[in-house]
Amino acid sequence: MQVQIVDHPLAAARLTTMRDKTTDNAAFRAALSDLTQMLVYEALADAPTATVSIETPLTAFDGARLATPPLLVPVLRAGLGMVEQAHAMVPEAHVGFVGVARDETTAEPVPYLESLPDDLASLPVFVLDPMLATGGSMLHTIELLVARNATDITAVCVVAAPEGVAALERSGHPVRLVVAAVDERLDETAYIVPGLGDAGDRQFGPR
Ligand SMILES: O=P(O)(O)OC[C@H]1O[C@H](OP(=O)(O)OP(=O)(O)O)[C@H](O)[C@@H]1O
Ligand SMILES: O=c1cc[nH]c(=O)[nH]1
Ligand SMILES: [Mg+2]
After folding, report:
1. Within a domain: 189
2. Into how many domains does the chain fold?
3. Per-residue pLDDT tens for 117-145?
4. Is 9 annotated as a binding residue?
5. Domain annotation covers residue 57
6. Residue 82 lies in a domain
7. DSSP sequence for 13-28
8. Domain with 78 in it
9. Among the listed residues 149, 159, 154, the one whose alpha carbon sits nearest the alpha carbon of residue 192
10. Rg of the Cα atoms in the chain
11. Known active-site residue 201
């Protein structure tokens, strides 16, 4: 599996703001939005383009547009903080939604929402979720996509645990990972260390 770590001073600065426990909800959301812009920019660096013939004020010109804009799929709740910025970067993209919440005691994903197009055979898909911990929520989402014939999936995350990266790798699904950092480990409650805490709570408050 391809793992692309977005290692840039501006990304590191936003991630540091997100990790800081004194950062309030609004500043956390702002840093996540900025960082999403960088992650999506990097995730699309090799995307195929199609030619668009236009006229500049001076002459004819063959320009470019994305050949196939990806379907954006935020994983609720925490992925909601990424979708507006990702959509601003790719305004022509369609958006699907998946809702999953980890059971607090087992850390197993509990699905509660699924709103996706029926056929994803010819569409790249960007799954937006800041946290890849055990990988359970991401794998649940990827399985929904693969069941709809998706063959080109990018997980766009902020922080991953090595355990989550390994789970994606083991799954054999057609996925690559674009992430700002791969942290040390999971703790005994399956939270990422050093991490940034609960990405949903830090944006929206406790559920
Ligand atoms: O890799 P995993 O072990 O599955 O953990 C990662 C998931 O946990 C968080 O969501 P959470 O369940 O806290 O829901 P929330 O976004 O509503 O807070 C996060 O946004 C991921 O979806
Ligand atoms: O560290 C973690 C693990 C799962 N979900 C989060 O929001 N944070
Ligand atoms: Mg949460």
Report:
1. yes
2. 1
3. 999 998 999 999 999 999 999 999 999 99
4. no
5. no
6. yes
7. HHHHHHH-TT--HHHH
8. 3-48+66-204
9. 159
10. 17
11. yes
